[in-house]
Each structure stands twice: as structure tokens, then as C-alpha cells.
Amino acid sequence: MAQNVRVGGGVPLTPVQPLSPLPSMPISSPGYPYQPQQQPQPRKKRRGGLILLILLLVIVLVAGGAFGVSYFLTGNKASSPISVTMIKGEPIGISDGTIALDTTLEDGSLKTQAAQQLKQNPNNINAAISLLNEATNKNSNDAEALIYKEDIHVIQSGSPYVTLVVATMISGDQVRVGRDDLQGAYVAQKEFNDGAKLRNGTLVRLLIANTGSQTDTVPTVAHQIVQLQQSDPTFAGVMGWPYSGRTQAAIQILSQNHIPILSQTASSDDLTNASPYFFRVAPPNKQQGIQGAKYAEQTLHAKTIGLFYDPQDSYSQSLAQDFRQQYEGVDKNKVYTEQYTIGKAGTIASAVHDVLNKNIDLIYFSGYATDVSTVLSNLPPGNLPVMGGDALYELGGYQSSALGNFSRLRFTSFSYPDEWDVLKYSAQKPAFFNEYSAAFNPDEQHPGGSYGFTRADNDVILSYDATVTLLTAYDIALNTGKQNPTPEEVRQALLKINGDNTIQGVSGQISIGANGDPINKAILILYVDQMGRIHMEPTYLGRFLK
User: Fold this and answer.
1) Helix or strand or coil: residue 136?
2) Coil, strand, or helix at residue 315?
3) Which end of the chain is more exposed for a tag (fewer CB within 10 A), N or C?
């Protein structure tokens, strides 16, 4: 994780540092009691038969208890959709606050205690609220705790409410992305609830779905979401997943059950027309690949590049293909391709060594921040620039060894916290920016410009926009006179978010096309100066104001 990285405005980046994992209580999944049928016993001897029956009952109870314990811990398919299973040390599943998911922060033990109180004393929530208040006093930007508190308020109010699932990774090596996603969703939830933005006094309840560090857990959680749809009439849809691969793993399961899924940042081209139930607020890679190639050729004047990509990753592969297609369309440009494997630093270092022998003008790295750190760490002295896509705007993912060459970096992005000021729209800035600071820096203990407290990054902003879009669609469905619009009706309403229903998002206009992709969405170019501060180029592709 990067240390002392400096960001736009010359403000030092001080992301929350996770502490050593705190010991947490066992996490389990509630199940139904096992009640096997009893076989009738012969009645040759009344007393002997009675004794035998008692012995059999004892055996059944013991066996049933053992089965019940196993069932409770493993999350059988028949268990409650709001449940969590420990898989490879990570809490995988859906939580409504009765299980704490992100327990590695300073307030982790307090959230765990609050979860136990909610589970054990559902009719007396004062103890849970007190513990959650203590948790947010200790760690004011923990959106998981804030969401649970707001959900309690929603349930206790007696008002009608809509339930959305926020699907992300809130454990494992991508936990920082999940924390950002929850922050954006919480600001939208609080804004809609405090401002009574939904018709009929309807409030917003958020459930958190965690798939952790492994993509292969996504189908399990997707099936839980299907169960939730079947048992909870307030459920309306899913905001997430942030990664293309996770989204692809869930689409078929959710689509077959007519559940809309709206992603904040999944940008693989393979997702376009993948399902009539898939939507997104970030444009597909094709658009940012074109923008990146134009910038490389016209601004950086690069004629020969080394193109790094992982052919097994949908995001990396499609972005690389889009960049190359646009770049090679310009006369006399040349591309050398280098394949690597995500998470395998050795394959990246080897590719860097190979491409440096080819007299290139630029490295285009199609991948993620944790991996481009290896590129930056292995560059020789000089000014060879490195460029990539929106996934490089994950500041917590940079290794300290990469900071010496951080100023060589440029990347496309779908949002930037100073965007409105750079584009000279300061007077029209949405309330989001004040709401963000009020939510996560309530006592003003953190200075202005602190990411995670007063300054929202790319993932936060797009998660906010995605949640607002989903809720706006729900409100459109409510306007038809429905008391509890179904997920199918929400899907139909999402297709109406264009024209007069276009939303002014924090990241630019949000207008949904017939294929679920945003129409003419704004794309930015960010770069890092010699002081390690991130800046935005004053031009952009697409439409920003609606």
C-alpha cells in the first residue's frame, strides 16, 4: 500500500491503514432445524417399545443437533438469504447488520459486538446502536457501520422502504475497493432518506453482499440474492459488482430471475448486450481505450509502445484490444504486446525487461494498480511514461517501491473529485461533496483533502451515482402507482433514464441506452506531477452536464 502519496491540490494521501485483524466471534449462517421423519416401531412389548422409542428420540435429537450445527455453519442452500459462510477465512454472503463483514479496522470488534446484539436481541436494538455509535466515533469513515445504523432507523420508523443489495468485496485483498463502494452507497442512502426523495415516504435500506477476494464465490452470493428476491417483497435490485469479472459471474443467475444489476465501474466490452438486466454508469472500455490512444499519440507523441495485458482477464484483455485498435489506426504507430498474469509480479517484471529492449516511447498497462506498481518499480532511470485505464485510479493499491516513478503515470478515469472546479462548474457542484464530508468527517478531525474522510475518489463517486440511478428508477416505478415495484418493473424504469429523465451525476450526465450502457458518458485523463500530485487534464471526452 502506498505511503505518503500526494494527490490533486498538493494534499497528501492518507488512506485508512487496516490494523492487524482483531479476533472475531464465529460467523455462521442461520438454518432451519432438521426434523427427520420417525419410522413406526413394532409394539411387541409395551415397556421395551417405550424405552426403545426414547432411545431413538435421543439419537435423533443428537443427530439432528449435529446436523443443525453443521447446517448453521456451512450455509446450506435452504438457509436464510441473509447469512454468511466462512470460506477460506473470509465472510462470504449477505449481511443486514447481524454479522460484521469488515472486521480488520480499528472498530472491528465493536461492529462484531453490535452484530451479536442485533442477532440475539432483535426487539431491543439500543445496545446495538450504542455499539455502532462507538464504532463510528472510533472510525468515522466506516460506511459499513453507518449503513447498519441507517438500516435500523429505517426498520424502526415503520415507514415503507425499498431494499437494495450492494454487491462488492469487503474482505480480502480488494477490501479498499469495497470500502469505497459502501461509502458511495451510504451517501446516496442518507441523502434519499433525509431528503424524503422517494414517493410515498419510502425509505432506503441497504444490504451488503460480500464476495471477498475470489471470483468463484460470486455464484453462491448471487443465488442468495435470488432467495432474497423470493422472500422479500421490498427487494428491488443490485448495485455492483465493481469488477467486470465479478459482474460476469453473476449476470446469468440474476438475469434468469429477472433481477436488474447496475454496476458502478465494470467496463469490459463483453458486458455490452450481455443481458437485458445489466446496466452500468461507467462507459465500456472501447470508449476509454479510444481516448487513451488519442492522448498517447497526440499529447505524449508516442509512436512505439509496449502494450501489457492479461489475456485471461476480461477487463484487461478488452481495454488492451480497444487501445491497440485505435492506436494502430494512426499511420506509422507500432505496438509490441507483452502478456502477464494478474497478481504474478514475476511475469510483469519479465515483460518489462523484454519490452525495454525494443526502444519504445510508452508503456500502456492494461490492468490494475497493484500490478502496475511492479512496472513502475522496475523502470530504469529516465522519463519513459506509463499509461493505463480507470483501474489505475486505486491509490491504496500502489506499493511504496513504485512511488519513485509515480510521476510517470497517466490514466483515463470516469471521475475526479476536483472535476467540477477544473471544468469551471464550481457554482453548480452537487450536494454530494458536502454530504460526503459531513458523513465521514463529522467532527472535522481530518484536514481538507483527506481521501476517505473529506475527499471522495473514483470508486466512491461512481458507487454514489450508481445507487442514485437505481433509486431514481425505483421512484419512476413508484410513480406508476405500484406500492412495491418488482425488480422487473425497476428494470423497465432503468430504460427510461434518458431524455427528460437524464440524471446529473457527480461523474457527469447519466443517460442509459437500450443496451444498458451510458450514453456519451464523460471520460477524463489524469496525470501525476513531479511532486506526486494527481491532476486532471482540462479537456474530456463525452458529455458532462446533462
Assistant:
1) helix
2) helix
3) C
Name the maximum alpha-carbon separation found in the chain. Answer: 99
Question: In terms of pLDDT, which residue wins out, 72 or 533?
Answer: 533
The predicted structure's pLDDT at residue 79? 67
Read off φ and ψ for residue 533, nearest 5 degrees: -100, 135
* Sequential DSSP letters for 337-369: EEE--TT-HHHHHHHHHHHGGG--SEEEE-S-H
Task: Kindly give, in sequence order, each residue whose CB lies less than 8 Å from that of residue 167, ignoring residues fewer than 6 positions away.
Answer: 209, 211, 221, 225, 238, 239, 240, 241, 246, 250, 261
Q: Taking 60 as the threshold, does the pLDDT of residue 107 lie above it? A: yes
Contacts of 382 (CB under 8 A, 6+ apart): none
Four-CA torsion 55, 57, 59, 63, nearest 10 degrees: 180
Q: Is the pLDDT reported for residue 65 higher than 60?
A: no
Name the pTM for this structure.
0.83
Q: Is the confidence at residue 63, as pLDDT, over 80?
A: no
End-to-end CA distance of the chain: give it in Å, rounded: 37
> What is the rounded CA–CA span in Å between residue 234 and residue 198?
14
b/e burial code for range 88-121 (CB count within 10 A of at least 16 → b): eebbbbbbbbbbbbbbebebbbbbbbbbbbbeee
> pLDDT above 90 covers what percent of the chain?
78
Mean pLDDT of all residues in the chain?
A: 87
381: Cβ–Cβ under 8 A, 6 or more apart, which residues? none
pLDDT tens figures, 208-240: 999 999 999 999 999 999 999 999 999 999 999
CA 504 to chain CA centroid, Å, is 21
